Amino acid sequence: AEFTDSDIAFAKQVSTTGDGVAVWTVTVSGIVNGDTAVAPQRTFYRVPISVIGDSPRAGGLPSQVAAPSVGVDLKFGYRNTVDLNSAMGQTASGFVTSYLTGGTDFARYVTADSVERPIDPAPYMKVDVVKIEANVPKDGTAATAAEAYVTVAARTKNYTLTMLAYPLSMRTVEGRWQITAIPAVPLPQSSISNPL
Fold first, then answer.
1. Stated pTM of the model
2. Mean pLDDT of the chain
3. Residue 101: CB partners within 8 Å, gap ≥ 6?
């Protein structure tokens, strides 16, 4: 069977064994034989996954299951728009652009202790920053650390357009904004009674 239009619908860590193996349940979805079906339907399959270090491996054959329930939208904690021409905006823009296009100026945007590296080979030829948001007001002028969220339109060499977004952890070093890390998930919204 041909499995197309695949997507990860759900993933959850179930346990960790005594020897450090993480066990996950992952539900993937896709369309089986969509080109030949009169009315193609999305189907869902659950599979156990074991992960040790950064190496995942399927733990068995998949089980066909019902579609997972609809979840809730995650609200982000970036309440302030950052001017693209501000010091914080220029650092965030420059970092993401260099990260995606293989820019030779990548090192100027990251702190000395950052482990981030540009994607190699560079997947995009051109990056246009659409919007930058942060958890600090006034373009970070009164802050020394911040969480930012950068939305970009990236184009490949054949001009295919892809919209992407990157959470960034930032701090000032000798008065200049730099990137410390790309967090695995965006900053969740804090409670309304405890505004940022």
1. 0.71
2. 91
3. 122, 124, 125, 126, 127
